Structures are given as C-alpha cells and as structure tokens.
C-alpha cells in the first residue's frame, strides 16, 4: 500500500501534485518488453496516455516506438528522441497542417481512418514528392466490454473505416501513387480487462487480412492497437499480465512469415506508476453526508468527472496513525471546482479524516496529468518524481 512509503518527504511539497514512481515504471516497461520479446512483437507507446517528458524518455530508452494522435504528439516524440521510423500517427481528424508536419518528419506510418483521408494524404504527399506509408484503421465491430465512453470499435463509433467501405478503400489505394499500403490497424477501446475480447479481435483481424490478401495486397503490418486495462481496485497489484495478453495474440492471430505484429499500449504501461497527492482542505459534516474537500479536483484528474472512473483513495496520514481499531467514516471525497461532478468518490470508507491530511488518489498515471485543465483558472499541474525526493 502507498502508505508504507515514507510520506514525511511530502510535508514540504505544495499540493496537489502528481507523484511518479519511476522505478515501478521501469519494472513495468521491462516486464512488457520481456513478455513481447519471444514473439518479436513490436510495441508503440500511445503518447496520449501520458506525454510527460521524463516518462517518455524512459519509454524511448527501452526501445519502444510511439503511437501519436496529433502532430503535437508526433513532434513531442521526435523531440524526446523516438526514432521517426518507429512513429505511427492515428486520428479520425488529422488536419492538413498535421499531415504535412508528419510527412516532413518522415514518420513510419499513417493509420488512416477514412477513404477521404487517403485521398487528401495522397494529394499532400504528392505536393512534397513523397510517398507516405499507410495502414488502414478498420472498425472491426468488436465489443470491447468496457465503459461505453471508451469503446471505439463498434459500428456506431466514429473511428476507422467500416467493413462496407473497404472495397472503395481498396480502389482508392490502387489509384494513389504517393501512398504505400503496408498494413491494417485496429484499436477497439480502452481499459479492456476481459482478455476474451482480444480473441474476438484476432478472429476479425484474420478475416480482414485474408480479404486484402485475396485482393492481391501484401500486408507487412498487423497493428492490433492497445487497450489493455489495469486493476484500479488493487493498485498494489501493479504490473498488468502482459504475458497472458501477448499469448492470446500469439495463439489466435494468423501471422505470415513476412508480417510484423504491432501493439499500441498506453494505460497498461504508465497507469499504475503515478498517484495524485492532495491535502484535505476541509471536512464538512452534513446530516446525510460527510465530505472531504481536497485541494485537487477535476482540473488535475478528470477521469472520475468525465467517465465515472473509479480511483482508489487512501488517507495516508491517518492510515499511518491508526493501525488497528480505526474508526471509519463514509465520505464523499470532492474537489474545489465549481461543478457537482467534481467528485472523486461517493460514500468512500476512510479513517476519520482531518484538515491537512495527505491523500493519495491511486492509479493516476494514464489519462491524468495530460487531461489537466486551467478551468477556474487553476494553477498549472505540478509533479514530483520518486527518484528525486
Ligand atoms: C488511445 C489509443 C491507444 C492506447 O489506448 P490504451 O487504452 O491507453 O492502451 C492505442 N491506439 C490508438 C489509436 C489510440 O487512440
């Protein structure tokens, strides 16, 4: 548990801040790399989960590529030193400016999400007398069995090319001299904890790969995206089961000798390696409810307000004090922002809490710092790295 750590070092640090456990990140990256190695799977880290430069440096050093969803992320990846031949660029709405920038940076592959985007990319590449490598992002209509706001691979979702548009897509690819078609790409959602979902994905990938190869195309890349979930309820059970995850693809994906399998993992790599550290400003005792008002809110960690996400919350000060015989109270744990959704948890059992207590909101490494906003003209988010305190 987080409270086992020496929190006295936090006493003089202004809250709220993200606390990054760089050792845990290193272990997680190493475990993932080791699990992928026997199958020669290629990992691209999805920058949108967390583009903090210190973390990116560590991820780059392990040898992973970068999966970007804006030219800003492509630029960041290049700045940090990711090999441009290991950068892929997805996104349903790439602007001309973004495409041009990525062409200039000679990225490995554009993951294209519509027939019209192929046409535009071909035109922009031809103006630069370049050839852009493309993979088609296909919407495979596979249910990820995750929260509906983070499902991306169903017919009703905006992402990717739908199966009924593939014939048109194939025609377009044949008529675009400045595109080199290298593979197919999928990403069906995030925080996927039921690994059977990936078996269903493999079946669909095999079908689509066969469809293209029957049409005479050669697929060099099968990119199955990311989405592997983490255990938010047990943040101390910290490293995701990469071995079982990769084994499913090894077993169920039909990979030809000339093909590479690519993954785009975000959350699973960085999610457990940060906590949001915050202090209780006020304790409010109501008739029906008790509130802990923290100095962190949805402006620092938006996931609970955005998609009712669960994060484990620990009162570090009291857990340390009361070992046994603790008296527990149910609190709504809220932030200071002027929105009723600015709530990290309702009816959360905690030791009796007091003004000044330090809290950790766990598993905040993915989609945390990167979603911080200035709403209410809040201070910029601060962060602290475990190897620096
Ligand atoms: C967000 C995203 C990912 C990473 O998703 P995680 O759930 O964080 O693993 C991978 N690929 C694409 C195209 C994405 O948009």
Automatic annotation (TrEMBL):
The active site is at residue 338. This is Diaminopimelate decarboxylase. The modification N6-(pyridoxal phosphate)lysine is found at residue 48. It holds the Pfam family Orn_DAP_Arg_deC. It catalyses: meso-2,6-diaminopimelate + H(+) = L-lysine + CO2. GO terms for biological process: lysine biosynthetic process via diaminopimelate. Belongs to the Orn/Lys/Arg decarboxylase class-II family. Its cofactor is pyridoxal 5'-phosphate. Residues 17-365 form the Orn/DAP/Arg decarboxylase 2 C-terminal domain. Keywords: Amino-acid biosynthesis, Decarboxylase, Lyase, Lysine biosynthesis, Pyridoxal phosphate. GO terms for molecular function: diaminopimelate decarboxylase activity. It comes from Pedobacter yonginense. Its EC number is 4.1.1.20. CDD domains: PLPDE_III_DapDC. Pathway: Amino-acid biosynthesis; L-lysine biosynthesis via DAP pathway; L-lysine from DL-2,6-diaminopimelate: step 1/1. Residues 33-270 form the Orn/DAP/Arg decarboxylase 2 N-terminal domain. It is an enzyme of class 4 (lyase).
């Amino acid at each position: 548990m987080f409270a086992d750590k020496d929190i006295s070092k936090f006493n003089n640090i202004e809250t709220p801040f993200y606390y990054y456990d760089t050792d845990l990140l290193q272990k997680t990256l190493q475990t993932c790399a080791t699990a992928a190695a026997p199958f020669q799977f290629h990992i691209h880290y999805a920058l949108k989960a967390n583009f903090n430069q210190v973390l990116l440096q560590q991820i780059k050093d392990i040898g992973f590529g970068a999966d970007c969803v804006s030219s800003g992320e492509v630029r960041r990846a290049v700045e940090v030193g990711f090999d441009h031949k290991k950068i892929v660029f997805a996104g349903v709405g790439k602007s001309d400016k973004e495409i041009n920038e990525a062409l200039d940076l000679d990225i490995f592959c554009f993951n294209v999400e519509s027939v019209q985007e192929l046409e535009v990319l071909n035109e922009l590449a031809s103006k630069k007398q370049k050839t852009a490598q493309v993979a088609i992002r296909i919407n495979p209509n596979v249910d990820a069995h995750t929260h509906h706001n983070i499902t991306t691979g169903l017919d009703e979702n905006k992402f990717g090319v739908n199966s009924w548009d593939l014939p048109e897509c194939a025609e377009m690819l044949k008529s675009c001299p400045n595109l080199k078609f290298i593979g197919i790409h999928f990403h069906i959602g995030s925080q996927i904890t039921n690994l059977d979902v990936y078996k269903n994905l493999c079946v669909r990938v095999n079908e689509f790969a066969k469809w293209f190869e029957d049409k005479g195309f050669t697929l060099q890349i099968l990119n199955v995206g990311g989405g592997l979930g983490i255990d938010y309820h047990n943040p101390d059970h910290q490293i995701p089961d990469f071995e079982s995850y990769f084994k499913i693809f090894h077993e169920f994906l039909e990979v030809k000798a000339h093909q590479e399998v690519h993954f785009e993992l975000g959350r699973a790599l960085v999610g457990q390696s940060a906590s949001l550290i915050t202090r209780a400003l006020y304790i409010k005792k109501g008739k029906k409810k008790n509130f802990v008002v923290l100095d962190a809110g949805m402006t620092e960690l938006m996931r609970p307000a955005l998609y009712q996400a669960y994060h484990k919350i620990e009162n570090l000060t009291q857990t340390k004090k009361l070992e046994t015989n603790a008296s527990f109270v149910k609190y709504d744990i809220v932030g200071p922002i002027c929105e009723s959704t600015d709530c990290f948890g309702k009816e959360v059992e905690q030791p009796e809490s007091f003004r000044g207590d330090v809290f950790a909101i766990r598993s905040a490494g993915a989609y945390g710092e990167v979603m911080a906003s200035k709403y209410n003209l809040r201070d910029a988010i601060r962060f602290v790295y475990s190897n620096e305190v």
